[in-house]
Amino acid sequence: MQSVKLNNGVEMPLVGLGTFKVRGYEVVHQTLDSALGHGYRSFDTAGVYQNEADIGRALKELLPKHGLSRHDIFITSKLAPRDHGPEAEAGCLRSLEALDCEYLDLYLIHWPGKQGWKSEDPRNPECRQQSWEAMESLYRHGKFRAIGVSNYTVGHLQELLTQCQVKPAVLQVEYHPRLVQSELLAFCSESGFHLQAYSSLGTGCLVTEPKVKGLADSLGKTPAQVLLRWALQQGIGVIPKSTNPERIAQNARLFDFRLAEEDMELLSGLHSDTRYCWDPRAVV
Ligand code: A2P
To answer: 124-140 and 88-99 helices cross at what angle (nearest 10)?
Structure first.
């Protein structure tokens, strides 16, 4: 599995397994078993996914089975929006405890606003700063190998850059051909942050898009592979979610083909500013 070197020297696999909505111990165990068997070494979860404890338990069982140890894999989790602000350190420690890990490889602020507060609540910036300071402290203590943010806009990132002592290593956002976030990508690349895409398949909606399907057919690939490859060729990491073993396998087979420039343009031309997930732009 190819990886990217983050701005603090930590190596992160470019393809990871998303686990949003992967719930229940049996499902988690079976999904991670399949992913490890197909070469996945990176797993993305979050406090709000309510599967951290099951993932931690399943990995404890599965790593020896696959001849792996903790340092062979990369675990990402995220601070739940309810824990933003003064409760941030406790929220981070809860993730570590639930995953039963001495350290996590990457920890992200999941959302720029605090749960239960309106987007325009003027206390949101202070909350973000408190959360980031708590994460910086845990980073310095070796509990997180890298820290970053998710669902931040350029404005949120600019604010963070004026306050932080540790620069974010990763920005995780929704990114696919119908939501080509060029400004964010350019800002990340200028600032040295790795952009990682979630919902590369548009929560599954894009695999039936006729142009995507047509291109995939012409290349002898699946629509999902073409969508994921399109992101990788922009230097963007991906974390497709699937619980289906055949799809888990195909979503990792992305390094034996290349999209031509005109194919990249065809996909980017689908941009319509469509979000399948959440829109953080209103959060002050
Ligand atoms: P499933 O878990 O049944 O495979 P996204 O990562 O954009 O949020 O997309 C996730 C959705 O896409 C899930 O519903 C998942 O369903 C589906 N999916 C994942 N991989 C594939 C694939 N290779 N082909 C078709 N659908 C997929």
So the answer is: 50
Number of domains in the chain: 1
Ligand 1 near 201 CB (within 6 A)? yes
Number of Cβ within a 10 Å radius of residue 20: 17
Q: What is the dihedral of CA 227, 232, 236, 240, to 10 degrees?
A: 50
Under a CB-based contact definition with an 8 Å cutoff, are residues 41 and 73 in contact? yes
Domain span at 239: 3-282
For ligand 1, whether the C-beta of 241 sits within 6 Å is: yes
Bridge partners, 147 (sequence order) = 107
- Cα–Cα distances in angstroms (integers) from residue 155 to residues 48, 119, 125, 274, in the given order: 24, 14, 11, 20
Over residues 56-78, the pLDDT tens digits come to 999 999 999 999 999 999 999 99
Task: Write out pLDDT tens, residues 155-173.
Answer: 999 999 999 999 999 999 9
CA 135 distance to own-chain centroid = 17
Cα(156) to ligand 1 centroid in Å equals 29
SS (H, E, C) the chain: CCEEECCCCCEEECECEECCCCCCHHHHHHHHHHHHHCCCCEEECCHHHCCHHHHHHHHHHHHHHCCCCHHHCEEEEEECHHHCHHHHHHHHHHHHHHHCCCCECEEEECCCCCCCCCCCCCCHHHHHHHHHHHHHHHHHCCCECCEEEECCCHHHHHHHHHHCCCCCCEEEEECECCECCHHHHHHHHHHCCEEEEECCCHHHHHHHCHHHHHHHHHHCCCHHHHHHHHHHCCCCEECCECCCHHHHHHHHCCCCCCCCHHHHHHHHCCCCCCCCCCCHHHCC
Cα 240 to ligand 1 centroid, rounded to whole Å: 7
